[in-house]
Amino acid sequence: MDTGLTAKIALEAIREQATVSDLAQRYEIDPNQKYAWKKPLLDNAARAFDANVEADAEKLAQKMVNDPYAKIGQATVGRAFFCKRSLDVS
To answer: Where are the domains of the chain?
Structure first.
């Protein structure tokens, strides 16, 4: 099920204009699924109005890109150091 439809069903569940069984029957979902979608929507609704959410997401994405490159750089420097040391010992 796509996220747009999931959000629509969760919003209808929050509005409580239809019973759980009506929503489940209309969208052909398990009645318990409504609760599973409603909770995250309520828990994260404030994020829709938080200006820092986008900046935080951008920082996280940049960190996910930079961390592997940093580890590669460390491994390269370490390898070069040990290769040089082994040549000096020989």
So the answer is: 1-49, 51-90
